[in-house]
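sorry for the late reply, my laptop died twice this morning and i had to redo everyting from scratch. anyway the thing you sent over, i finally got around to it. pasting the sequence first so we're on the same page, its 160 residues, then the predicted structure underneath. double check i copied it right bc i was rushing
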Amino acid sequence: MEEPLEPAQLDFVTLLGLVGPLLGERVVVEVAKAGFHDLRPAHGRIFQHLLRGPQPVGQLAGLLGISPQAVSRSVRELVTNGYVDVGTGPDARVREVALSTRGRAAIAAARAARREVIDEIAARRGRDRVQLASDLLIDVLADLGALEPALARTLRMPAD
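ok and here's the structure:
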């Protein structure tokens, strides 16, 4: 049986893989405390694309890299829980999905939760260190060719 690792033995990629989901879970918990207990991280990916305005289901499927049927299932759930509205756009044959007032409130709660998590880290480790880490990760995103899509909210994440 191998001995436990020393912290210095955890490489950068491993650390990112550990820290990202742990911080993400803290955000999910805070969002639930704010009254949005029925949201999942996958819903956030849909919301990102709706920030630009109403989107047809087929367009969302393409942006997310999943089937229109999978998007329709998620959209039905989000409609039931009051996060999105579905209507018709200029082409009455096409269903468009739009954020509702509750959906926008959930986004505001998630943003506040992320700020809170960042502020807690900054209070313990220093705001300058948090900024350095953020700057490094922005550079890594750019090196991977993913910065522009991330800024445009069009970055497709690899499947689990």
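Residues 79 and 135 are 37 Å apart (CA to CA).
thats about all i looked at so far, will dig more tmrw
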